[in-house]
Amino acid sequence: MSSWVSRTTGSHKVQLAAAAAVSSALTFGLVVGYQKFRRKKRVEDLKSSIPDISQEHIATQLTDWGAASDVLKPSKEDERSAALALRARQGDYDDELILEQLARNRVFLTDDGLSKLRSSFVIVVGCGGVGSHAVAALARSGVSTLRLIDFDQVTLSSLNRHAVATLADVGTPKVHCLRKRLEQITPWTHFDCRNELFSEQAADRLLGAYEGRMPDYVVDAIDNIDSKVFLLQYCHGNGIPVVSSMGAGCKSDPTRIFIGDISASTDDPLSRSTRRRLRMLGVKEGIPVVYSSEKPGPGKAQLLQLPEEEFKKGGVGELGVLPDFRVRILPVLGTMPAMFGLTVANHVILEVTGYPHDYLPSKGREKMYESILNNVQALEERLARTSGQDPVGVRVPITLDDVGYIVEEVFRGRSAVSGLPSRLTLTRWTAPEEDFIDDTIEGQKCSKVRMRDLVCMTKDEAARHETEILKGSKNVEDLYSPQIVTLVQSRLEEEAYYEQFR
Questions:
Q1: At what angle do helices 269-280 and 482-499 cross, to 10 degrees?
Q2: Is 331 helix (H, G, I), strand (E, B) or coil?
Q3: Same domain assignment for residues 226 and 262
Q4: Domains: count for the chain
Q5: pTM check: above 0.70
Q6: Cα dihedral angle (153, 156, 158, 160), rounded to 10 degrees?
Q7: pLDDT tens string 472-489
């Protein structure tokens, strides 16, 4: 064995192979060591090249939203405006200059009204097309403290409707875009920017006090239905004054913009969805909203479908900015969000200052609802008489508000039979049970008719319906087409579902 080892180690080829292996290992070690040395040296050089943070090197500081790119480096004008704004908020700004800038508001609102506005604290949730115009108008009008809440950034498509954004602002948070631009106009305004998504978990903090003062008003300019509904419910339940903007998308007629209670807003899908959800939470009225009564029609813009190729890819929900956010494209005429935002701001100014205002209702339909309620009352009396029951003193458990809800919400302001919008009334869809008058309480008789029993028709259609179905022997299937029967049934089932939450 030892002789084999001696022969092997003494072999010239083995010696060469061993020398090559040792040389390779030594070379590899030297290369690795050199690379490690170079990396360490480069890191040290990089660290030493970074200057200390100072006003002279502001570009190296993180911005308020975590960016450090030279693209977002403030311009000289921005730097001067920010410095002036800081001095103004600290009191180093002549009050006479402020009053001169607000002179037209001052003579309109009086000194007392302007004083209320200047000392007010307003929160704006959503700083897109509607919210940005509301913020700009409130700041220009003298509101001293504005909390801006929005998670989103300015995009190129934002520029057709945003109040102050420029190309230089694309990619920056909307709240900081507003602050930066408006500081150049009203440097004394305190902007409390919250670059985050409004949510149920954050409501107490985002809608809470600023330096010990609760908000005088909240502006809802959110376009996400879940966040919108919770914000309105939170404000309503906590006694915080709030005004809400409904949908400005697909709208083009400025003469159709109204301010009214949320229970009265019509012809707006976002408003309808918001009302339904709020009713489920026990909130039926008491929230002022800005909405458009403009109806869709041939040739008008509609919510666009996603391209077919996007559906084929699957995972359409991943296209949304956030879970449950709209992924379809909403056509927006740039002027309409501005008018919604300015209308919202106008309402806040009038409310905060106590300026008298009596808005024109969008529809003077209260008299029509009273007439319909009387018709329902008379119908129940006639049906009681036909069934041999005493009709004297019969009352119906339906209110004026219920009538408006059934006509406008459930049946969209049209006859379920013909689709006509005029000479409307409500009638039972099917004949009542034999004993439909509750007289168990002495001295009081009440019909058992429910909202889910009533259908909207024209008066002529209702008269025929009463004769042939409610008092006659026909069924609804005998008188109406399957399409009408299906439509009515679906609307009544829809109402029955929402009725359980009231």
A1: 50
A2: coil
A3: yes
A4: 2
A5: no
A6: 160
A7: 989 999 999 999 999 999
